[in-house]
Each structure stands twice: as C-alpha cells, then as structure tokens.
Write a structure and sequence with these properties.
alpha/beta; globular; 239 residues; three-stranded parallel β-sheet
C-alpha cells in the first residue's frame, strides 16, 4: 500500500533491532478484516491473529502499536516499531526502502464498488492515500480522490463525491452485495502487487529470518490457509 518517502530511508541505517528486546508490531487498526480495533480497544483481525502466531512460533515477545497509514513506513524507519503488518503489498518501489518477509497473503484482486451500475471508471475514483490502488487509479486516466482511511473512501462514494472506490477486494466485501452492503461491484477485478508481507527495516535481518521461517512453517502445515479462510471466507486466495 504505502508509497515510499525515500528521504527517510537513511534513518534505517541508524535504527536497528536487538533480538533481546520486545518486538513492536506496527499496524493501522483501520483496515478490516486485515486489522481493526475491537470493542475492547484492542488490535484485532487476521493480522493480529497471524502476528501473535508468528511471534509464538519464532519465540518472540511481541506488542502491538497502531499508526496512521500515510506515515507507517517513515515511523518504522525512525524506530517507533519493528515491523509493519498492515495489509501492505510487496512492491519493487517499497523494497527500495524496506525489506519484506515472504508473503503471508497471496496476490489478490483489487476491485471497484459504486453506488449504481454503469458508472464511469475514468471519472472520479476514491482510493486510500499511499496505496497501490491509488497509484493504479492515478495512472488509469481517472481522477484520483485520496482519503486517509478506507471508511472515508466508502463515504465519498455514498455521498456522491466519487463515482467509485478502488481497493483490495477483500476489504470491500463488507460494503458489497455479498454481505448485504448497499454498494455494487462494477468493472473487472484487477490483480496488483506481489502479495502481502511483513515489512521490516533492512538492518533487521535476524528478525526477518525468524518471521520468514515462521510464515514458511504455517504455509507448510496448512494453518495459514485455515486462518485466511476463517477471516476472508471460502473464496479467498490461499497458498
């Protein structure tokens, strides 16, 4: 998702992680079902369950930290937390600044939702700021209208500011007819990115190795697929 602010990359050279310390897991907390804040005020969702499982398998003590999406990479690099586990797609652009584990969610579709059929997908399209979907809209010839959160993009369609919203299809399902929502699927699904991985500072090779091994173990024993289906349904992409 998040675009890179390359000027912050130098911070990573001076910010490292000691395996003796608690691992701070950074997430947005506003992108269900990947991550959200539950009624108890706690981080919840697919990535909370997954992150806790990875930490247990890797023998790590972990705590959760939330950060707004548009500054999530700079705050990783400045040391405010040690990982990004927030529905972040692996892209070549991001890999110039941070490292990723192997993907824990396979490449999946992005999609459009609109208030009615027949909308102009070259018109005004809402997307969350700093996402690969926003990049796609900007390059598609449509007019990009960016918002801080997914909920804001949905509101823009409902109040007529935007013709449609473009985002991860899995994140849009609750607003769609599939789950009784009042917006409609329009256009074709579009695959973007190389799947979703845990983002880390380039200096944290030991931590990346431990998380990579844990993800690989969960892929091999089928527990990762079970978790994906639990949170995203039987039609979700799996490994």
């Amino acid at each position: 998702m998040n675009k890179l602010i390359l000027a912050t990359a130098a911070l990573a050279l001076s910010t490292g992680f000691s395996m003796a310390q608690t691992v701070r897991m950074g997430t947005e907390g506003a992108y269900p079902p990947y991550n959200f804040i539950n009624d108890k005020g706690e981080v919840d969702g697919f990535e909370r369950e997954l992150g806790d499982a990875l930490c247990e398998k890797a023998g790590l003590t972990c705590e959760w930290v939330t950060n707004e999406w548009d500054s999530i990479i700079p705050n990783l690099l400045s040391g405010n937390y040690d990982t990004i586990i927030a529905g972040m797609s692996i892209t070549e652009e991001r890999q110039q600044t941070i490292d990723f584990t192997q993907n824990y969610y396979p490449p999946a579709a992005s999609a459009y939702l609109a208030a009615s059929e027949g909308v102009d997908l070259k018109g005004v399209i809402a997307a969350q700021i700093g996402t690969i979907q926003a990049d796609y809209v900007a390059e598609s010839g449509a007019t990009l209208l960016e918002f801080a959160t997914l909920d804001d993009t949905i509101a823009a369609v409902k109040n007529g500011e935007a013709d449609a919203v473009f985002a991860d299809k899995d994140a849009l399902v609750p607003f769609s007819p599939d789950e009784g929502g009042d917006l409609l699927w329009v256009g074709e699904d579009i695959p973007l990115g190389g799947g979703i991985g845990v983002g880390l500072r380039k200096s944290d090779t030991e931590l990346r190795g431990k998380l990579d091994a844990a993800i690989g173990e969960m892929k091999a024993d089928g527990s990762l697929n079970t978790m994906i289906v639990k949170w995203f349904g039987d039609k979700a992409a799996t490994f």
